[in-house]
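Many introductory courses stop at the sequence. We go one step further.
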Amino acid sequence: MLQAWNKTRFFVVAGLVSGMLGLAGMVQPPSVMAKHATHKAAVKVASVNINTADAGTLAKVKGIKPATAKAIVAYRAKHGPFTSLDDLRKVKDVKAKNLGTLKSRLSI
């Protein structure tokens, strides 16, 4: 009877230890968790309206540098709202090769 109880206790303890070792592989250091949190925050900025966004918001869009964001806002202030995303070609700092990529991140 005592020997059967020891075997049971052994398997219970072994199960607990293996479970804890399995969880140890799932824990990530804070630097990795912060990296993923930053990535998720960037994903939330999916579509920015080029007629209402300020330069700071535009600069958060992947592919738009701060100088380009300021140029977009300045162009909009001088010429009025954009009527299509293709109008961004008229902005000096916006490159035609980047416009295709930017279209998926911007809206009117």
